[in-house]
Design a protein that fits this description.
Blueprint lengths: L11 H14 L12 H8 L3 H13 L3 E4 L3 E4 L27 H4 L23 H14 L14 H13 L9 E4 L2 H12 L5 E6 L3 H10 L2 E8 L2 E2 L1 H11 L3 E5 L12 H14 L2 E5 L13 H5 L4 E6 L11 E4 L2 H15 L4 H12 L3 H25 L3 E2 L8 E5 L6 H10 L5 E2 L12 E5 L6 H10 L5
Parallel strand pairs: 4-5, 4-7, 7-8, 8-9
Antiparallel strand pairs: 1-2, 3-10, 5-6, 9-10, 11-12, 12-14, 13-14
Helix pairs in contact: 1-3, 2-3, 5-13, 7-8, 7-12, 9-10
């Protein structure tokens, strides 16, 4: 076991890098041998997940280790090649269920044979605008069959971008259609911004807790993630100012409204101060506002206050029309959009012409506004019901947004929600433990509940049992 001295003036990351690199030089770690996983290393040596990630990243950058996708980290020989190329492990359905950053990406979208999924991030299929999509499909098949074929426009459907410009204007964001780039959903939009803005070693601010998929994306890009604590008013401004002084980041990725996983939104005062700090400390804000249509309050977005000066705005239609319609967008100043176009083309050619035509037709239908209004009302009712049921089994709510998808809750006597989620799996219930949403993947007592999937009494019977026994 490596000896680490927490009292040393040398940072733990440096101690790990020095220890492993010296073991490789001394041939105590042979070329081709596999290192412990990041999770195993952090548990064995009692260091944070973030510390282990940064140390492994440095060892890769220095040429001591090779990361092999789905297999782990392997020792290079000093010539820079592996003596025995490791093979990725074969899929095994009996493998232990692992709540790490890959959970929702690799497991949730495959269903996992779970009967109940209060931890999922999507609306129920029955809540999507199926009638609108079906009508639009039939209409396009009759009137515009060519829409089912070609690549489409590099920036995305011009008519949809024009309609989006009008929609944004209604929310006080002034954006010409040429300032809008259509993407294959909100995640694709975030991916393009990560690729455009972030280089290996860059310090990036993110919400804590925040969006797990974004964290994984940033890690793959080599970013150093620094979490900005979420509060009931949005973000902790005191903590943010201290982090800005210490780290001098270039960008802050934040989910401003009905945030995943806490359900919080930035208050007007917090939003104004955040923009002032962005100007003072010279950083960009990528505003992920994919839940905007689920917000009945009509709160102004950061991009509306800033008019796309320091704010890049991301939106999506997947939450209100249908998850399968992967159509999102980026709104920004014109020069940035022009620079994103070739990146979009290189990473995936054009976005789907068919999906964009469908979204446009759905938006132009007179009933879409009614559908959104109905969604907002359904979610408000679910929030009230689920909040009371959670409190009834002893759960503490972080806040009650009464809108959007999520409630963030914990039981005061439990420290590790991941263990509770593992127990739930045995009863075919998918819970989303807070560890998934922490930038450093540390264990926390919180869980994310999707109110639209959390009204079945079996969930609360399990929680009542699980939170009254030692986990």
């Amino acid at each position: 076991m490596m000896f680490l001295d927490p009292g040393s003036q040398a940072p733990l990351v440096s101690q790990i890098v020095t220890g492993i690199s010296q073991a490789i030089k001394d041939q105590r770690l042979r070329p081709g041998s596999k290192l412990p996983s990041i999770r195993k290393f952090s548990q064995t040596h009692k260091v944070s997940h973030f510390t282990a990630v940064e140390a492994y990243d440095r060892l890769v950058a220095l040429g001591y280790l090779t990361p092999v996708r789905n297999a782990g980290f392997y020792v290079r020989d000093l010539g820079g090649t592996l003596s025995n190329e490791p093979q990725p492990p074969q899929a095994d359905d009996d493998n232990e269920f692992d709540f790490d950053a890959y959970l929702l990406l690799q497991k949730v979208f495959q269903g996992m044979d779970m009967d109940l999924r209060p931890g999922i991030g999507l609306l129920p299929e029955s809540w999507s605008d199926r009638d609108g999509v079906q009508r639009s499909l039939r209409a396009l098949a009759r009137s515009e069959p060519d829409s089912f074929c070609g690549y489409g426009n590099a920036k995305g459907n011009p008519k949809l971008r024009a309609r989006l410009a009008e929609k944004l204007a209604d929310t006080r964001i002034a954006a010409h259609p040429e300032q809008i780039l259509l993407t294959s959903g909100g995640s694709h939009a975030l991916d393009l911004m990560v690729r455009y803005l972030v280089q290996r070693g860059d310090t990036v601010l993110v919400d804590e807790p925040g969006y797990h998929n974004l964290f994984l994306n940033l890690r793959l890009q080599g970013a150093r993630l620094i979490g900005v604590p979420r509060t009931r008013d949005g973000i902790d401004l005191t903590a943010l100012e201290a982090l800005l002084q210490l780290h001098k980041p270039k960008v802050f990725f934040t989910n401003t409204r009905l945030q995943c996983p806490t359900g919080t939104s930035l208050s007007l005062a917090v939003a104004h101060r955040l923009l002032q700090l962005a100007e003072k400390h010279d950083f960009l804000i990528v505003e992920n506002d994919i839940y905007a249509d689920l917000d009945p309050s009509g709160q102004q977005a950061l991009a509306g206050m800033d008019q796309l000066s320091r704010v890049v705005y991301i939106g999506s239609f997947s939450k209100t029309i249908a998850p399968a319609l992967r159509v999102g967008f980026i709104a920004a100043h014109a020069e940035l959009i022009e620079e994103l176009v070739p990146l979009k083309l290189v990473s995936g050619l054009t976005s789907s012409q068919l999906a964009e035509e469908l979204v446009l037709d759905v938006l132009l239908q007179g009933r879409h506004r009614k559908h959104v209004k109905q969604l907002q009302e359904q979610l408000a009712q679910a929030h009230e019901s689920v909040a009371r049921r959670l409190e009834g089994v002893g759960m503490e709510l972080f806040t009650e947004p009464r809108a959007g998808l999520f409630l963030w809750a914990r039981h005061p006597t439990l420290e590790d929600s991941t263990t509770l989620a593992m127990q739930a799996r045995e009863e075919r219930i998918l819970l989303a433990p807070g560890q998934l949403f922490m930038p450093d993947a540390r264990v926390v007592p919180w869980l994310r509940f999707n109110v639209a999937h959390s009204e079945d009494e079996r969930i609360y019977r399990f929680l009542e049992r699980g939170t009254t026994t030692k986990v």
